[in-house]
UniProtKB/TrEMBL annotation, chain B:
Record-given protein name: Alpha-ketoacid dehydrogenase subunit beta
Gene Ontology process terms (BP): organic acid metabolic process; sulfur compound biosynthetic process
Organism: Natronococcus pandeyae
Pfam families: Transket_pyr (PF02779), Transketolase_C (PF02780)
Lineage summary: Archaea, Methanobacteriati, Methanobacteriota, Stenosarchaea group, Halobacteria
UniProt GO molecular function: oxidoreductase activity
Record NCBIfam families: PRK09212.1
Length: 349, 342
C-alpha cells in the first residue's frame, strides 16, 4: 500500500463501512415487509421513500474519521452511511426511520430528515440545500474562534445546483472551514453524469472559486482518508475550504422500488464487482490483521445493528396529537388549539 | 364490428398519467414548438409517469432531461416561451419550488404585466403534489394556495383522467403561463395505488376543458362541499357514506384555482345554505379561506354554516399516525358535513 494509514484507523473505517452496509441490508428487509408482491410505497413498517447507499461507504468513512463531535456534517437524501460514520445515535436514528416517538425527531422527520445535534449532524431531502447551512456552521466556528469544521456531503447530480455553487463562493471568499464532499456515483436517479454536466471531474468546479479541488478517482477508504486529512487539516488551521469529489458506486436503485430499467446491465454489474469494503478487508490483512479479528469487527457491527433495529421496533409510535407539537420551541398562543405544552426553550445554553 | 370498436374507444379508461401524456403527445405532434424539460423525464418517463413513452416518439431534443438546476431550466422555459415557443417544464415535486421561485413568480408570472402585455409567456409548469404516503415535510405538500396567491399564473388541478387530458390540452394552448399540479396519488402509478375515481373513460380525440369551470361531481340539497385534487374523491366517498344517513351533499371539484369559478360555488350555496371547504393545503391564508371569503362577499345572506377542513398549520409529519392526523380523511369530511348541518 502506498498510502500510510495507521492500522487502528483502517479498522475503524472498516467498522463504519460494514456497519453501514449491514444496516442498510437490514433496513431493506424491513422496508420490503408489506410491500410484496405488489410494491406499495405507503405500506409496511417503513413507508415513504428510502435511499440506500451501498457502494458509497468509503466516502463517508474516509472523511468522517477525521471529524470530532463538534464538527458539523450535513448530508443529502442518502444519509445513513454518513450518519453512521459521524457517530449519530444508531438506535434513535433507526427509531426515527421506523417513525417512532423515541426517534431522533420523534417520528416527524423520517429517513431523509435526520438530526442529531449531539454530534452536529443533519440532512435534507432537497438537492444541495445542505451546503449553505454547512457554510453557516463554518462561519459560526470562525466567529467564535473555534477550530471546528463543517462538511457538506452531496451527490454529483447536485453540483449544478445554485445552492452548491453559491456556497462554494461564500466559503471561499470568507475562507471558511468548510469541506464540500461530492459522492460521484455516476447517476442522478436516471440521469448519467455526462448528460447533465460537461466536466468529468466535478472538483474542477473549485477552480472558478479559487479554492482547492481534489478528486479521488476510486473509492478506496484509504485514499479518501488521505485526501480528507489534508482538506480538513487545512480548514482546521484556518486556511479555507476545499472541494473533494470521490468516485463511489451505486450498487442499488436510486430508491427502493426503482426498476433501474434506464441503466445498462454492464454498469450495474461493474458496480457489484467493485467493493471498497472487500478491498479494505484485503488491506487490513496485508497490514497483518488476522481474519478472526476482521470477522470480529463484522460480528460486532452486525450485533450493534440488530440490537438497534430490535430496539427501534419495540418503541412506541407517536400519538396523532403529537403532530401539533414542535413547530416552534416557543409556541405563540393562537396558532394551535392546543395549550402550549413546552418548557420555555433556550434556557440552558 | 366497426361500431363496436368505436364504442369501445369511448369506453376506454385511462389512468390520469396516461391521459396527461396523451394530451402532451398530441400537442407535440401538432406543434413542433412544444417540448418538455425536467429531471428524469426522458428514459425514466417521469418519476410519477408524467412523460411515460414520450422519449421513444419524440427523442431527446424534445423530451429533455436537464441538470438538477431548476432555476436554470425553468427560467429557460420562460425565455423560450417569450420567444414564442411552448415549453413545458416539470418541477418533480412542487416542494422544490423553493430553489427556483424567482423564475416562477417574478419572471414567468410577471413579465406579461410588467411589459404591458407586449411580452407573453405561453409555458406550462407541471408539478407533482400531495402526501398520503409518508414522504414527510419536504415531499408531501400541495402548496395550491401559494401558487394561486401570486398573480400572473393560471393554476390547474385535475382530479380525473378525463379532466387531466382536457386541462392539459388547454394549458399547452393557453398564451399565458399555466401551473399544472397533478396529485401523485391520483396518477395511477404502479407503486402508489390510486383510489377509485381518477381512472375514467377518456375520448381518443383531443378536447379542451375551459379554465374557470368547476365541475359539480355530485348534486345534493343539504350541504355544498367544495374541494380539489385527491380530496374530490375523499369528499365523494364521504357524501356516499352520509347519503345512507339521509344527508345529501353536493360535491364541487374546482378544477382550476386561477381562474376560480365562484359562480358555481355561489349557486350551490344558494341552494344548500351550508358550505364545507376541503383542502390538502395548509389551513391558514389558503384555498379554504379564499372560497369562504368569496361566498361571504357575494352570498352572505345564503350562508347558514361554514366549515373548513385542511392541513392544520404544521409541516407534514413523517410517521403514519401523525400524517393521517393532519391530512384530511373521509371521516374528517363527514364530520364537517354533519357539523355544518347541525
Ligand atoms: C431541488 C431538488 N430537485 C430535485 C430533487 C429530486 N431528486 C432527489 S435525489 C435526485 C438525484 C440526486 O442525484 P445525486 O445528487 O447524484 O445524488 P444520488 O442520488 O446519486 O446520491 C433528485 C433529482 C430534489 N430532491 N431536490
Ligand atoms: Mg449521484
Amino acid at each position: 500500500m502506498d498510502i500510510m494509514v495507521a492500522v487502528n484507523e483502517l479498522q475503524s473505517m472498516f467498522e463504519d463501512m460494514v456497519t453501514a452496509r449491514y444496516y442498510e441490508e437490514r433496513l431493506q428487509e424491513e422496508y420490503l415487509e408489506g410491500k410484496q408482491p405488489a410494491f406499495d410505497i405507503s405500506a409496511g413498517p417503513i413507508p415513504g421513500e428510502l435511499h440506500l447507499a451501498a457502494g458509497q461507504e468509503a466516502a463517508a468513512a474516509g472523511v468522517c474519521r477525521h471529524l470530532r463531535d463538534s464538527d458539523t456534517v450535513t448530508a443529502p437524501h442518502r444519509p445513513h452511511h454518513v450518519a453512521i460514520a459521524k457517530g449519530v445515535d444508531l438506535k434513535r436514528m433507526t427509531a426515527e426511520i421506523f417513525g417512532r416517538r423515541t426517534g431522533l425527531s420523534k417520528g416527524k422527520g423520517g429517513h431523509m430528515h435526520l438530526f442529531d445535534p449531539d454530534v452536529n449532524f443533519a440532512c435534507s431531502g432537497i438537492i444541495a440545500q445542505g451546503c449553505p447551512p454547512a457554510v453557516g456552521a463554518g462561519l459560526a466556528a470562525t466567529k467564535r474562534s473555534e477550530d471546528s469544521v463543517a462538511v457538506a456531503f452531496l451527490g454529483e447530480g447536485a453540483i449544478s445546483q445554485g445552492a452548491f455553487l453559491e456556497s462554494l463562493n461564500l466559503a471561499a471568499v470568507r475562507e471558511l472551514p468548510v469541506i464540500f464532499v461530492v459522492e460521484d456515483n455516476d447517476w442522478a436517479i436516471s440521469m448519467p453524469k455526462d448528460r447533465v454536466t460537461d466536466v468529468d471531474d466535478g472538483s474542477q468546479r473549485a477552480g472558478g472559486f479559487d479554492m482547492p479541488g481534489v478528486r479521488v478517482d476510486y473509492d478506496d477508504a484509504t485514499a479518501v482518508y488521505d485526501a480528507a486529512k489534508e482538506a480538513i487539516g487545512r480548514a482546521r488551521a484556518g486556511n479555507g475550504p476545499t472541494l473533494l469529489e470521490v468516485q463511489v458506486h451505486r450498487r442499488m436503485g436510486h430508491f427502493m422500488g426503482d426498476p433501474e430499467s434506464y441503466r445498462p446491465d454492464e454498469d450495474k454489474e461493474a458496480a457489484q464487482e467493485r467493493d471498497s469494503i472487500e478491498r479494505l478487508a484485503a488491506d487490513l490483512r496485508s497490514e497483518g490483521v488476522a481474519d478472526d479479528d476482521i470477522e470480529e469487527i463484522r460480528e460486532r457491527a452486525r450485533d450493534r445493528v440488530d440490537e438497534a433495529i430490535e430496539w427501534a421496533k419495540d418503541q412506541p409510535e407517536p400519538g396523532p396529537e403529537e403532530a401539533y407539537e414542535d413547530v416552534f420551541v416557543n409556541p405563540p398562543s393562537g396558532v394551535t388549539t392546543e395549550e402550549p405544552s413546552h418548557e420555555l426553550a433556550g434556557g440552558d445554553d | 364490428m366497426a361500431q363496436k370498436e368505436s364504442q369501445q374507444a369511448v369506453e376506454r379508461e385511462l389512468t390520469m398519467s396516461r391521459a396527461m401524456v396523451e394530451a402532451i403527445g398530441h400537442e407535440m405532434r401538432e406543434n413542433e414548438e412544444v417540448f418538455y424539460m425536467g429531471e428524469d423525464v426522458a428514459d425514466y418517463g417521469g418519476i410519477f409517469d408524467s412523460t411515460q413513452g414520450l422519449l421513444e416518439e419524440f427523442g431527446r431534443d424534445r423530451i429533455m432531461d436537464v441538470p438538477i438546476s431548476e432555476t436554470a431550466y425553468i427560467g429557460a422555459a420562460v425565455g423560450a416561451a417569450q420567444q414564442g415557443m411552448r415549453p413545458i417544464a416539470e418541477l418533480m415535486f412542487v416542494d422544490f419550488f423553493g430553489v427556483c421561485m424567482d423564475q416562477i413568480y417574478n419572471q414567468m408570472a410577471k413579465n406579461t404585466y410588467m411589459s404591458g402585455a407586449s411580452v407573453n409567456v405561453p409555458m406550462v409548469l407541471t408539478a407533482a403534489v400531495g402526501g398520503t404516503y409518508n414522504d414527510a415535510a419536504q415531499h408531501s405538500q400541495t402548496l395550491y394556495g401559494t401558487f394561486a396567491h401570486l398573480p400572473g399564473m393560471k393554476v390547474v388541478v385535475p382530479s380525473t383522467a378525463y379532466d387531466a387530458k382536457g386541462l392539459m390540452h388547454n394549458a399547452i394552448r393557453d398564451d399565458d403561463p399555466v401551473v399544472y399540479m397533478f396529485h401523485k396519488r391520483l396518477m395511477g402509478i404502479g407503486w402508489m395505488p390510486a383510489p377509485d375515481g381518477p381512472k375514467t373513460p377518456v375520448p381518443d380525440e383531443p378536447y379542451t376543458i375551459p379554465f374557470g369551470s368547476a365541475d359539480v361531481k355530485r348534486e345534493g340539497e343539504d350541504v355544498t362541499v367544495v374541494t380539489l385534487g385527491l380530496h374530490v374523491h375523499r369528499a365523494l366517498e364521504a357524501a356516499d357514506d352520509l347519503a345512507e344517513d339521509g344527508i345529501d351533499a353536493e360535491v364541487i371539484d374546482l378544477r382550476t384555482l386561477v381562474p376560480l369559478d365562484t359562480e358555481t360555488v355561489l349557486d350551490s350555496v344558494e341552494k344548500t345554505g351550508r358550505l364545507v371547504v376541503v383542502d390538502e393545503d395548509y389551513r391558514s391564508y389558503g384555498v379554504t379561506g379564499e372560497i369562504i371569503a368569496r361566498v361571504a362577499e357575494e352570498g352572505l345572506a345564503d350562508l347558514e354554516a361554514v366549515e373548513r377542513v385542511a392541513v392544520p398549520d404544521v409541516p407534514l409529519p413523517y410517521a403514519r399516525p401523525m400524517e393521517d392526523e393532519v391530512i384530511p380523511g373521509t371521516e374528517d369530511i363527514e364530520a364537517a358535513i354533519r357539523s355544518a348541518r347541525s
